[in-house]
Each structure stands twice: as C-alpha cells, then as structure tokens.
C-alpha cells in the first residue's frame, strides 16, 4: 500500500511526490558527493548513510510502500522553476500520540537564504495540519544551524526545549533544539505569516 500522491503549489515553490524518474537526480544531489555542503548543517553528527543509485531506488520504493492509503506522502520534492532543489519530510516521533516532526533539506547551496525553504515549510506544515488530525507539528535542529532556527521563528514555531551540549561536531559541543507550533497557533497566525513572507520574496 502507498499514500496518495501530493502536489502543492506556492508563489515560487512547488512541492510534489517523488516519482521513479526523480530517483537519479535526487541521488546525485544527496549522495554523489562524499562530503556535501548541505550535510554540514543537516545533523552532521549523524553520518550520511551511503547509497548506490540502485539501493536508493529500493529505499524510496520501500518508504512509499510503508505508508498506508490514509497517510499523506512522507517526503516531497521541493521544485523551483522545474529544478529540484531539495525535499521536505515528516516522521512520527510517536504515532499513537500523533506526535509528528517535520524536516527540510535544501541540497543546492545557491538556493540558501532566498526564502525558498521558508515558503516550502509554510506549504508543508499547512498541508499536514489540513490532512492529519494533529495537535502540534514539531521541528528538531541544533544550535549551530541558526538559519533553521530563524525560519522556525518566522513561521511562529516556539522554542520548546534546549538540550544543552548534547551534540558534538568537529570537537565542539552544541545544543539540540526542539521547536513546535500548535494547530490553534498556526491557524491564528498562518495567513499573516504567509503574507509577510511572500511580500519579502
């Protein structure tokens, strides 16, 4: 069984389900380089699991097969003007409690600091609240990734926890950062945030 295909359109960003035809390009963006720049900011204390193109195809197929028909697709491509620049995702911290966390990866540095990730997360969080009975959406990062923390703040996510000096990277300690937004908070501020963000793009 697989989830329904997803297709979300923003002002400059499109989110869509991954197809078989996307596997090779995604593999090149994520796994081709041994030390990609994006991984230095995206939980670098966890090593990037190596994949060949064939093993990555199998991984993506298995991910979709694990989803039930009533679940939204758990990973979508971020596309700008027809170019794949990254992905958004979610995972269940505890499914029985509907505790869900989101993630985002912009694999092409030339698209950093341009507002694309912010718009993608607006679309993604809004979509998840609309299709799942969630009380909260969470986002976990680390204290060196200040860009990610600023994006969370712009979107109305609150700092809910800081676990101090629990991550080591390049010999230095960093904090784990937990952020989140409740459904009622998102509904109250979403339209205002979207207008503010889009007007700056």
From TrEMBL:
Keywords: Transferase. The keyword Electron transport does not apply. InterPro entries: Acyl_CoA_acyltransferase, GNAT_dom. Residues 13-184 form the N-acetyltransferase domain. GO terms for molecular function: acyltransferase activity, transferring groups other than amino-acyl groups. PANTHER family: N-ACETYLTRANSFERASE DOMAIN-CONTAINING PROTEIN, SPERMIDINE N(1)-ACETYLTRANSFERASE. This is Protein N-acetyltransferase, RimJ/RimL family. It comes from Thalassobacillus cyri. The lineage of its organism: Bacteria, Bacillati, Bacillota, Bacilli, Bacillales.
């Amino acid at each position: 069984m697989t989830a329904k295909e997803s297709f979300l359109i923003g002002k400059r960003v499109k989110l869509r389900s991954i197809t078989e035809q996307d596997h090779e390009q995604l593999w090149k963006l994520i796994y081709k380089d041994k030390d990609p720049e994006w991984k230095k900011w995206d939980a670098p204390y966890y090593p990037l699991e190596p994949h060949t193109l064939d093993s990555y195809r199998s991984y993506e197929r298995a991910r979709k097969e694990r989803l039930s028909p009533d679940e939204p697709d758990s990973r979508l491509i971020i596309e700008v003007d027809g170019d794949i620049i990254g992905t958004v995702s979610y995972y269940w911290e505890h499914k029985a409690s509907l505790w869900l966390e989101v993630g985002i990866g912009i694999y092409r540095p030339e698209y950093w600091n341009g507002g694309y990730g912010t718009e993608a997360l607006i679309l993604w969080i809004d979509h998840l609240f609309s299709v799942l009975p969630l009380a909260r959406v969470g986002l976990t990062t680390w204290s060196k990734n200040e860009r990610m923390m600023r994006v969370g703040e712009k979107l109305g996510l609150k700092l809910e926890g800081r676990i101090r000096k629990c991550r080591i990277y390049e010999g230095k300690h960093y904090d784990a950062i937990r952020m989140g937004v409740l459904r009622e908070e998102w509904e109250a501020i979403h339209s205002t945030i979207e207008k503010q963000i889009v007007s700056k793009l």
